[in-house]
Amino acid sequence: MISYIGRRILAVIPIVLFAIFITFVLIRISPVDPAEAYLTAAHIQPTEEILAEKRKEFGLDQPLHIQYVQTVMKICRLDFGKSYLTNEPIIEEMTERIPATMQLAVSSIVLAIVISIPLGFLSAIYKNSLIDKCSRLLSFFGASIPQFWLGYLLIFFFSVKLDLFPVEGRGSWQHLVLPAVTLSLALIAIYTRLLRSSVLEQLQESYVLYARTRGLRERTIVAKHVLKIAITPVITGLGMNMGKLMTGTIIVEQVFSWPGFGRYFVEAIFNRDLPVIQSYVIFAACLFVVCNLIVDLVQLYMDPRISLKGRKDS
Fold this sequence. Notes:
Order of helices and strands: HHHHHHHHHHHHHHH
CATH superfamily of the largest domain: MetI-like
CATH topology of the largest domain: MetI-like fold
């Protein structure tokens, strides 16, 4: 098991380096000149002399492989450079905004888990009942409605008409309700359907029939055996969506003026703040890799046979 964990951790390194390489290449082949973008953000009229000076300052006059190595070394030191717009270190601006995005993402995940797991489990146990029909209707609604439209709809009813929650900003728990509901509805739809189908599939397995013939109570079979195996795809989805939420809250943060990392990225795009854009993409790639690694370790804890399978495959 320890060797399996070590291999999984070591496999993260080339993936991160490849993500940095792709980001580096995309920035270099883009039609935007970093030196010109910096001068434009600083409201300085670009001339050939100033452009040449800034390109030398940014190291853009060096060969590409040297620029890439320097970029990797800086990232390893958590040095993402400075923002063209504010001239502040990006790592400091990221640490100021990431907690807001984490708060929104974690709240959405918790809300989705609290609702979808009982709902998906009960809809599978009581198949074709009223709760099953309601859960399928909720899943269809959550999977089909766009998040930006849902956000404006919630603002219209609960903020403008009923005056229950604030329209925008971050502060008390009331500010968190509408953005978290907007993000979590799609997750509730996914996890409910996923758990429902997984539980129904497990109920058809032979070990359930064997447990029933032994005289075990139905509640014991379902709670201790079926749910433990059926929830594995949901855990995988949680790992994938946690990284997605941390980097995919852009629309919701814009709708509710939430001062998070996604809104920071949108502002960087409009202002052609290339170091911020590069840092965001690298952070997103690393976050997805780390979340997938955590999911693999959790699944390994729940099912140690995974390490044996990995050993055989290698």
